Amino acid sequence: MGQKLEAGDRAPNFDLPGVYGYKAGATSPSHEEGVRFKLKDYEGKKWVILAFYDQDSSPNDTRMLVSYNGYNRKFTTKEIVLLGISQNGVNSHRQFIEVYQLGFSLVADERKEVTELYGVIREEKNDLDELEKRVHRTTMVIDKTGMIRKIWQDIEDLREHPLEVWEYIAKEKGV
Question: Which SS3 state, helix, strand or coil, does residue 6 take?
Fold first, then answer.
C-alpha cells in the first residue's frame, strides 16, 4: 500500500493520461488525443484539487462529481484546478464527461499507481467475499508550492462536500 499522506506533506508528482472537460461555451468536450496531466505543471501557478473516486458512473461517485461540477466555475476563476482521478481509462472518462457535461478534467490511473502513491487504495471484500483493491473516495487540496493543505476521507455528504472544499479554499486563499 502507499504511504499515508498528511496535510503539510509535499504532494507526489504524477504523469498520467486524461481527458479535458467541457470548456466554457463549448457544445462538446475536447476529443484531443494524448493528453497528459502532470502535477508539477501547476506548481507555482495554481492550487489543485485532487478528487479521487472509484468508478465512472457509479451512483455515489457520479453524485460527488456532478456536485463538484457546480463549483468548477468558482474554482477556475480563483486559479484552482479540479482533477478527478480514478482507475477508469480515457475512453470511459470521455464518455462520463460527455454524459454529465463535466467542466473539469478526469485523469486515468488504470494501473492504480498514483492512487497507491497517494495512499487512497483500500482492500475491501466484494460481493463474492473476495478481497479487491478499490479507490477510497478522497479529496486533497494542494497549494501552489505543491504542499498538501487539506485531506478529506470518509466523505459522507457527497452533494455538500464540494461546498466544504470551496469554503476551505476561500478561507485559506482569502477570496
Answer: coil
